[in-house]
Amino acid sequence: MKIKASIIGASGYTGVELIRLLNAHPNVKLQYLVSENNAGSKVGDIYPHLDTADNYSFSNPDIEAIAKNSDVVFLALPHTKSITAVSKLIEYNCKIIDLSSDFRLKNGANYQKWYQHPAASQSLLDQAVYGIPEINAANIKRATLIANPGCYPTASILGIAPLIKNQLLDIPLNHPLVIDAKSGVSGAGKTPNPHTHFCEVSNNFSAYQAGGIHRHIPEIEQELGILAGKDFTIQFTPHLIPIPRGLMATIYAPVKKNISQTEIIDCYKSFYQHQEFIKINSLPRPDLKTVIGTNNCNISLHLDQRTGYLIIISAIDNLIKGASGQAIQNMNLMFGLPETSGLTQLAIYP
Amino acid sequence: MKIKASIIGASGYTGVELIRLLNAHPNVKLQYLVSENNAGSKVGDIYPHLDTADNYSFSNPDIEAIAKNSDVVFLALPHTKSITAVSKLIEYNCKIIDLSSDFRLKNGANYQKWYQHPAASQSLLDQAVYGIPEINAANIKRATLIANPGCYPTASILGIAPLIKNQLLDIPLNHPLVIDAKSGVSGAGKTPNPHTHFCEVSNNFSAYQAGGIHRHIPEIEQELGILAGKDFTIQFTPHLIPIPRGLMATIYAPVKKNISQTEIIDCYKSFYQHQEFIKINSLPRPDLKTVIGTNNCNISLHLDQRTGYLIIISAIDNLIKGASGQAIQNMNLMFGLPETSGLTQLAIYP
Amino acid sequence: MKIKASIIGASGYTGVELIRLLNAHPNVKLQYLVSENNAGSKVGDIYPHLDTADNYSFSNPDIEAIAKNSDVVFLALPHTKSITAVSKLIEYNCKIIDLSSDFRLKNGANYQKWYQHPAASQSLLDQAVYGIPEINAANIKRATLIANPGCYPTASILGIAPLIKNQLLDIPLNHPLVIDAKSGVSGAGKTPNPHTHFCEVSNNFSAYQAGGIHRHIPEIEQELGILAGKDFTIQFTPHLIPIPRGLMATIYAPVKKNISQTEIIDCYKSFYQHQEFIKINSLPRPDLKTVIGTNNCNISLHLDQRTGYLIIISAIDNLIKGASGQAIQNMNLMFGLPETSGLTQLAIYP
Amino acid sequence: MKIKASIIGASGYTGVELIRLLNAHPNVKLQYLVSENNAGSKVGDIYPHLDTADNYSFSNPDIEAIAKNSDVVFLALPHTKSITAVSKLIEYNCKIIDLSSDFRLKNGANYQKWYQHPAASQSLLDQAVYGIPEINAANIKRATLIANPGCYPTASILGIAPLIKNQLLDIPLNHPLVIDAKSGVSGAGKTPNPHTHFCEVSNNFSAYQAGGIHRHIPEIEQELGILAGKDFTIQFTPHLIPIPRGLMATIYAPVKKNISQTEIIDCYKSFYQHQEFIKINSLPRPDLKTVIGTNNCNISLHLDQRTGYLIIISAIDNLIKGASGQAIQNMNLMFGLPETSGLTQLAIYP
C-alpha cells in the first residue's frame, strides 16, 4: 500500500521539488497537488519538466477532501499561511509536514516578535516536532505535526550540534557564535521581484539582513539552546550567491584547547554514525556542487592551530536537505520507511 | 609631459587591467608592455578588446631599457618573481609599483614562512611602502618602491581601520577578529587549472584554505597591527564566488558598549573624509555590482544591538581597487596628480 | 558651451545607461532626468553606482520645461509611450532622440500591425531619421528627430549592409535570409517578470517568438529593403543568453560564386572605412566579451567553401551600440562632434 | 542477473556521467572503471559526489580482463583513442558502446579527412551501428558495436528526421539546411584550457568553427543522407553558452507549401509515437532547463506563415541524451530491457 501524499502550495519552488521527489519515491502515490493560481491546469503544462506519464493536475484547496484522502499532507506555503491550514488539518487523521516557519518557534511571543504576526495556538506549537532527523528522530517517528526546519537552520544546526553535545565550544561569555551563510536564489522564492531579477543577481554577490535581523536566527538559537541546555546566541549574516540552488554556512567556533583536528573529526563521525546523509570530511575546497541535487549535508572541518578556532563548512541543497528532501526524510521516519527512501540521487556533475 | 609607464607581466589579468586603465589615463603614456610569452605580438591580436589606435605590442623583459625609459614601472608578476626584477630596477631612477606580495611583509622571516621562498633583502623590504593610499598617503608620496596591497587585505584593512584608530574594538583576549571573505574567480589568475574550469566554478560556491592558512593573513595582521600598535590576530576564510570580478569581506567586529550605529557611521565618514573612493553607508543589500568596474571601496555598517557586534561589509573590484586601480592611485600620489586621475569610471549596471 | 541633455525614462536600463555614459561625456551637461516613479529621489539613492559628485535627482515629466531647457532630449520609454511625448517636444527647438520603436517604421499601418497600437502621425514618421550612423550619417546630421534603432536591428543591419550594397547576396527567390540572434537579459527590461527571474534564466538558454513574430523583423526588413531597393525578407529567431548584456546575430548569407573570403573582408573593410566603431575580422572564436561595455560592433566573417554561404557573426553590447551608446553617437553627429566623443571606453576583461 | 558493465575513460565528463547513471540503473553492476590517471584511487576521493556505498575504485586498462569480465564495455575516450581499444575488445564476447566519433563515419576516407587521422578498419566501420535508438532501434538490438552519436548530431537528426521521412522539406537546389547550434561548456571536456577558463566563458557567448568546419558536420550529413536516400548538405554553426550542460539546435527548414503547423506537429508525433524520450510541442519559450538532467529531446515546432519556413528548436542535455544517457538507452535495447530503464529522472528545477 502506497502512502497517499498531498501537497498544499504545490506550485512554488519547494512544492515543485516535492512533486519531483515524491514522483520518484517508491512508496508514495501523489494525491492532491493544491495550487489556487493553477487549479485545473495540468502540472506538465505549467512545468514542462514535470510532464510525466501520471499526468497530474493542480487542484483547489479543499481541506476536508485532502485530509480524508491523504496519509500525509505537505504544506509548502509562505510563512503565516500555514497556521489556519494546520488548524483544520489537525482535526483529521492525516500526518502533517509543514515547510513554513509557522510551527518552528516553540514560544508564540517569539514568533510574534520576529514575524509580526500572531502565532499559532500554544497547543499546536507544543504538538509540533522540529523535524531535523539526525538530531530528533525519536520524536519525529511518533509525531503527527512536523515543523520542517529552515534551510539556514538545517546547515547551521547540523554543523554545530556535535560541538555542543560534546561540550567542545569555548565561546567567550556574552559573545555570539559567528555564522556567515550564503544561499542560492531559489531561497527567495518563485515570485519575481527586483532582487531576483537576473540582471541584478548575475555577476553579483550581496549580503542582506546584516546586523542580526534575519528570521532564521531565533530558530537556530532555539534548537542550539535546547542542545546546550541554556541560552545560545549567534551572529548570523546571510548572503546571496548567483546560483539557483545550494547553501553554505561557514561557522567560526572557538573550541576547547588541546583538542586535535583528528579528535574533532572523530567526534563528528561518531555523532553522525549511521546517518547516511551526513558526510564528514576536511576537504581542500568544500563546495556546493557536491551536494546540489542531493539530500546530503557535507560538513568540512578545519581547525586553526594559530587561533584555536574550528572553521566548519556546512553545505546543503537548500531545496532538498534544506526543505523538500528533509520533509520526505521526515515522512519516511513517520511511516517506518528507511530514511533514505526516494532520496538516493547523486549530485549532477558538472 | 606625460608619465612614461611600463608594465612587466602585462598579459595576466592585473597586467591587462593596467593596460586598459592606463590607456585611458590622461597623464600617462604606455612605454613597455612586457610579456615573454607574447613578445612581438600586437596586444590587440592577443586581446581583441585592447585593439586600440595606439596599436601596442608586447615586448621582452629588457630591464635596463625599461628602467631608463620609464618614469614608473608596474610589476604584475606572480609572487616570488618580483624580487629579482625589483633588485635590478631599484638601481635606476624610475619609480616601482609591485603588485605581487614580495614586498608587503616587512619581516623577511615571516615572508619565508608563508611563501616558502627566501625574502627580498631587508633593505629593500625596509624601503618598500605599503601602498594603501587612504591610510598611508604621506609615505606613498615620497616612496620609490610601492608594495601594492593584496585584494583581500585592501577590503579588510579599509573596513577595519577606523575601528582600530578610534579604539572601538572590544575583542576578547586571545581571540581573533573574524573576516569571512568572498572573491570572484579572476583572483585566481589567468592560467587555466582544474579549479578555474567553467564547469567546476559555475553553479558552485566553495571555501578554500579554510583554517587560517591563506597567505593574505600575515599581510592583514601586519597592517592592522601597525594601526593598533600591538599584535593583531584575524580568523580569515576565503571563498570563491562564481563571477569573474568582485570581492566582499564580511567582518564580525565586537565593539565597545554604548556606541550607536550613527556614531559608528560618523566615525567612518570622518576617518575617510576627503577619500573619494570610499563610500560609507548602511545599505539593505550591500553588493558587488555597485563597485565592479570602479576603484571604489563600499563599506556598509550594521550594528547588531542584540550582540554588540558590528557587521562590516567591505566591497571592492578585486582587479581595480584590489590591484591595478590601486596601483594607479599610488602612481597618482607619487607623481603629484589628483588621486582620482584616470580612475573615475562608474560601475556598469546592470 | 556644453550640450544640455535630458532623459525621459531615466530609470530603466537604457535610461540609466544614458546617465552613466553622458555623465562621462566631455561635451554634455545632464539637465532633467525624468522618472515618474522616482521623482524627487536622488539618483544615487536609487542607483548607488550613480552616486556621483553631481548628485543628480530624478524629476517629473514637465515636457515644456524640459524642451525649453534642453538642447537634446533622449526618450528611453517603452514602445507606444514615445508617441505623445514626441508630439509635444517637436513643437520646441530641442533635438529629439527616441530609443523606443515608435518612429522606426516608416509605414504607419505596418506599425499598427506589429505593435497593435495606432502609429504616430505620418508627418512625424516622415520626419524621423533612422539613426544608424554608419549607414545614415548625412541624414542624421541634419535631423531633428532620430528613431534610434533596436538592438537586434543594429547588429543585423550592420552585418548585412555591405553584402547588399555590393550586390553579393544570392538568395533563392522567395526565400528569406536567416538571422539567428541571441541576446542578454537586459534586453527584456528592468521590470521583473517570471521570464527574467534569476532561477529561470540562469543555467538556461531559450528561444522566444520563434516562427517569425518578433517586432524587430519589420524594422530590419525595412532598412535592408531600402539598401536593396526592393523588398527584403528575413527569417529571424531570437534567443535569451544567461548574461546581463551582449547580443550576437549569426547570419547565414548565400553569396555569389567565385568570391573569396579575402575579397569579402576587403569589401566590408572598405564599406566601413573611417567607421571607428566597426571591427571587421575573421576570429576563431568571435565572442561578446570583446564588445560588452563598448560602442563597437564586431563583425567576424566566415565563408564556407563547401556551401557558398557566408556566416556573419555580428556582436554588440545591446545597451550601448544597441541602444544608449548609439543614441549618443547620433547626438554627436547632430551637434557636429566627433562621433566617438564620450564613447571610447574599452571592454572590461575578464 | 545484472549486466556487468565497464567503462574505459571513466574520469572524463561522459565517463563520470556513465558512473552516475549506471550506479542508479536497476539492472547493472559496475565492473571496471578505467582511468589511467587515477588508477588505484577511490572514485569518491576524486569525485566526492560519487562517494557511494559501493566504494568503487578506478583501475588500469587491462583490456583482456575487462573484456572477459564484462557484458558491456563503454568507451568514453577522446576521438582517435577508441580505434585500438575496440580492435582488441571485438575479439571477445562483450558488447561495445563507443562514445567517441571513431566509428560514426561509415566512410574511412571521410573520417581521415575530418579527423586528420587514419580510420578504423572498414570491417569494423561496417560492423558499427549508429546508435540513435529512435531511428535505428532494430539494428541496435542486434549490434555488437555501437557508435554512440555526437551531441550536436543527436539534437539535429532527431529534429529533422520526420521532415525527411515525410518528404516535407523543400530546400532550394544546391543550398544547405541551416542549423544554428548552441552548447554548454561540458561539451568541451574536462581538461582545462584557456577557452574553458571561468573568466573567459562567464558573461560571454561565442561562436566557434564557423564556416562549416566542425567535425559533427559529416556525421549529421551522413545520417540525414541515409534517411533521405541522397546527399544532404547542412550549414552548421556551433556556439558556446555560459552554462555547464545543455544543447539546443535551431533549425531553419523550408517546407512544402500548404502544410499547416498542426499537420506538422501531427507528423512529428506520429513519427515519434512510442518514443518516450521525445517530447513534441510548440512552446512560447522552448528552453534547456526542461531537459537538463534528463534523457529527453524536446522538439518545439514553429511554422512561419510569412516565409514558409519551419523553425525547429531541438533541445537535449548534451551529457545525457547527447552522450552517456543515449549510450545507456542503447545498452537497454541491446540487452532486451525497456528503453527507459535507469533513465527516468526528471529535470531539476529551478
From TrEMBL, chains A, B, C, D:
GO terms in the biological process aspect are: L-arginine biosynthetic process
Q: Name one GO cellular component term.
A: cytoplasm
What does it catalyze?
A: N-acetyl-L-glutamate 5-semialdehyde + phosphate + NADP(+) = N-acetyl-L-glutamyl 5-phosphate + NADPH + H(+)
Q: In which pathway does it act?
A: Amino-acid biosynthesis; L-arginine biosynthesis; N(2)-acetyl-L-ornithine from L-glutamate: step 3/4
Q: What is its main location?
A: cytoplasm
So where's the catalytic machinery, residue-wise? C151
The UniProt record lists the keyword NADP: yes
**Gene3D superfamilies to which the protein is assigned, alphabetical:** Dihydrodipicolinate Reductase, domain 2 (3.30.360.10), NAD(P)-binding Rossmann-like Domain (3.40.50.720)
Protein origin, superkingdom: Bacteria
Assigned protein family: Belongs to the NAGSA dehydrogenase family. Type 1 subfamily.
Reported function: Catalyzes the NADPH-dependent reduction of N-acetyl-5-glutamyl phosphate to yield N-acetyl-L-glutamate 5-semialdehyde.
Q: What is this protein called?
A: N-acetyl-gamma-glutamyl-phosphate reductase
